[in-house]
Amino acid sequence: MPSAPPPLALIVEDTPLVAALLARVLHSQGYRVQLAASLSAARAALQAELPQLLTLDLQLPDGSGLALLEQLRAEPATAALPVVVISGSLAQVPRVIVLAQAVLAKPFALDEIVSVVQRAGAPLPPLPCLTIGESGGAYG
Description:
Strand order of the largest sheet: 2-1-3-6-7
Order of helices and strands: EHEHEEEHEHEHEE
CATH class: Alpha Beta
Largest sheet: 5 strands, parallel
Strand content: 15-25%
Number of domains: 1
């Protein structure tokens, strides 16, 4: 029986180094990862496939991530989508806290990303099970 694909995480981040770091951490946690470096790219990605987790920078080259977050919360199909805001500019913190499952300020530590994603309630795929038999052989 074919297994279900891993959950999708959409990373909306215009700083390539930060996007790559987030992608690596989320991939290690079992997510498929898609990157969007702008609001327009994020909207196109959301139209193509709804992710199970979205990380969102607030300052993007073509507008505010807060506008996208407000739009997501207004639409029934995305109202409950787990969103983790990861931004260096948290001037709009009160509004963001109401709309996002979690907020992480840049700079951040790697272990903070995993902790915040887990707190956001995003589904993680089950870990593979490895069983050690009586003879010492391993099988999955």
